[in-house]
Design goal:
heterodimer; A: about 475 residues; alpha/beta; six-stranded parallel sheet; 23 helices; 10 strands; globular; B: alpha/beta; five-stranded parallel sheet; three-stranded antiparallel sheet
């Protein structure tokens, strides 16, 4: 899916998603409901804004001192008996995982949610090497069975209807045809995955927070799939970006208070697991991945995107995400945060994403670590335009607009021509060939311009 | 130079400069009655709560509520079970048929009904997740208002594996409809012990 969609841009993919209007309305409404839950949870905490400020300042401190914190984390984790690996690129990360799997000579592997492994396309890589990994988060398992990437970092199959999931489970898990009861389907997945948990030798997890002071990692889930996987496996592999570090264990209070409330409106996830020392006879690995993060640290404009704790609040609030769906972003991390992360990884393939926004700023307002997401979207547009990655018609249109706007006489004439043309030949503007109007209706043109009105009325201004 | 050194060198060169880790002064919300807040929150996230004066009372509760349950394991000597705990230690796969586990939680948090429990109170690390039903027992005095007080308590502790458990395992991945019992325990009952 993803490889295919890379050939297209957000607008084209969003257009396809919008063909089914009822579905778009449903998608929009479901995500807005999650956003409302977030509001309700946040408003119950009078110190909410102080928590956001604190989280933001801790993350700024982490980015300023990341070198020391990484060294401290490495020392502590090694003292805990954990094996540490460093990967500069997704390829290197995937090779490390493969080498650990090969060493243990097994093909039974479970994985809980990890956006980093999505970023690295780990499953694809392992599959090419003849190893299949079972995703154990229910939403991730659903999209995995459907051979799709997740469409949301917290709610991976938010774009799927229960009837479709019933059909999918009928095909893959042998559930009765036509049964789409969510309780029944969840239990079918529980039984199916329980068997995988009990037979797996290796469990891969993501990392929500890594504490420099203690060397422990914290993983948050609602389903219990990370813990069940890890506690039944001989080997635990935890994959994290180098920016996941926080200085002290005490800082977790701030982040855990913010994370689930921002994500789904829950006061905390069901399980917040602190892995310090591996269980008896278990091998525990942590892979620290760079993939452009250290380079981004140097950028005053774009550094703060590294503060992200992957709560997904910016997805749920975004009017463009809610109405275009996660797959229209054609990257591992969709939504507003994905649109500022992805251009740094590949500016050419992701040049469309910073334009997939109305710049309304709602993303920045809900961000628990106060990332200036909409400002960065705007800044990326400038970088992308300057580096020549904007489509030719758009560049030409902007050049013409800029020429007209900087020339008052021409502006006046153009306005007059525009008003007359729209009045006499409305279909000349508002037709199918003009992409601006595919989803818009044209207001009736005014009789005169503001300048004309002002000239006529300026002497009556006293009343 | 290997990947580690190259990453660290780039981080050192590119990080924006020293800044001190500041103590973030948060004035956390207080609750008039932390026990009542804890109970209300737990119920809202799908848990059950019972107040008791003696651990022995749990025996009656099990007889009443878990009538058909046979495979029961407990870390409390007062609770009658048919299984010998020693047979289960460090053999997580053997625990797959456990229908009910009764464990001691170290303390509770009122704002989110989370209960802190570490490896030493789990019998086996897999038990809180692999069992069908989970009972956690906490002392009434142990309930703190928010995670700030909670981490004050655990920030200096040594533990190999610790976890906050808040309610039963759950998912809403199918059309945002909440289902209790995803992969972990399907039910969570918390006994608040008055001493």
């Amino acid at each position: 899916m993803e490889k295919e969609s890379k050939l297209r841009d957000h607008a084209t993919l969003a257009h396809a998603f919008n063909k089914d209007e009822q579905r778009v309305d449903w998608h929009d409404k479901t995500l807005w409901m999650v956003r409302q839950k977030r509001d309700k949870a946040a408003w119950q905490i009078p110190e909410w804004e102080d928590l956001r400020k604190a989280a933001s300042s801790i993350k700024n401190n982490v980015l300023s001192n990341l070198y020391n914190y990484l060294i401290e984390f490495e020392n502590r984790a090694q003292a805990n008996g954990v094996i540490l690996h460093w990967a500069e690129t997704p390829e290197e990360h995937n090779q490390i995982v493969l080498s650990i799997i090969k060493k243990h000579n097994t093909s039974n592997i479970v994985k809980s949610k990890s956006m980093l492994t999505e970023e690295c396309h780990l499953n694809d890589y392992l599959e090419k090497n003849g190893i299949s990994v079972i995703d154990t988060d229910l939403g991730e398992r659903i999209v995995q069975l459907a051979n799709e990437p997740p469409s949301h970092i917290v709610l991976p199959c938010i774009h799927w209807k229960k009837e479709e999931i019933g059909e999918l489970f009928h095909t893959h898990l042998g559930t009765p045809k036509g049964n789409s009861d969510h309780q029944f389907l969840t239990n079918a997945a529980r039984v199916h995955l329980r068997e995988k948990f009990l037979t797996s030798k290796i469990a891969i997890t993501g990392v929500n927070f890594a504490v420099a002071e203690t060397g422990e990692i914290v993983v948050c889930t609602n389903e219990g799939n990370a813990d069940l996987g890890v506690q039944l496996a001989d080997v635990h592999i935890a994959c994290m970006g180098i920016e996941k570090i926080i200085p002290k264990r005490k800082d977790l209070a701030i982040f855990l208070r913010l994370l689930a409330r921002s994500a789904t409106g829950q006061p905390i996830t069901t399980y917040s697991s602190h892995f310090n020392v591996p269980r008896k006879d278990q091998e525990m690995h942590i892979i620290l991945v760079d993939n452009g993060r250290s380079k981004r640290l140097a950028s005053d404009d774009f550094r703060s995107a590294l503060k992200c704790i992957r709560c997904g609040a910016c997805f749920n609030t975004c009017p463009v995400y809610r109405r275009s769906g996660g797959h229209s972003y054609h990257t591992a991390v969709a939504g507003p945060i994905g649109s500022i992360l992805s251009p740094a990884w590949n500016i050419k393939d992701n040049a469309d994403l910073p334009f997939a926004s109305t710049l309304c700023g709602s993303c920045s307002n809900v961000c628990p670590v106060k990332i200036d997401i909409h400002d960065q979207l705007y800044k990326w547009r400038q970088v992308i335009t300057k580096s020549g990655h904007v489509s030719k018609p758009k560049t030409a249109a902007i050049k013409i607009m800029s020429f007209v706007l900087s020339n008052p006489t021409l502006f006046k004439v153009a306005g007059w021509v525009g008003r007359k043309t729209m009045k006499i030949f409305p279909s000349l503007i508002s037709n199918r060939l003009n992409p601006w109007f595919t989803q818009r209706e044209m207001p009736s043109p005014p009789e005169f311009s503001f300048t004309e009105w002002y000239q006529k009325n300026k002497n009556h201004g006293q009343s | 130079m290997d990947s580690r050194d190259r990453i660290l060198m780039r981080v050192k060169t590119n990080q924006p400069g020293q800044s001190v880790h500041q103590e973030n002064k948060i004035a956390p919300i207080g609750y008039e009655n932390v026990v009542e807040k804890f109970k209300a929150t737990l119920i809202s996230i799908g848990g059950t709560v019972v107040e008791i004066n003696d651990v022995d009372e749990i025996n009656n509760y099990i007889l009443e509520k878990f009538t058909d349950v046979k495979e029961i394991i407990s870390s409390f000597p007062e609770i009658k079970t048919n299984l010998l705990n020693a047979d289960y230690q460090d053999k997580p796969h053997v625990l797959q048929n456990i229908e009910l586990a009764i464990l001691k939680g170290e303390f509770g948090v009122a704002e989110n009904a989370a209960i802190w429990i570490t490896q030493k109170n789990m019998l086996d690390r897999a038990l809180p997740f692999i069992c069908e039903n989970l009972i956690l027992v906490i002392e009434k005095q142990s309930i703190v208002p928010t995670l700030h007080e909670a981490y004050e308590m655990i920030s200096k502790l040594e533990y190999q594996y610790g976890i906050f458990i808040a309610g039963p395992s759950k998912t809403a991945d199918i059309e945002q409809s909440l289902v209790l019992g995803a992969h972990g325990a399907k039910t969570l009952s918390v006994f608040i012990l008055h001493k």
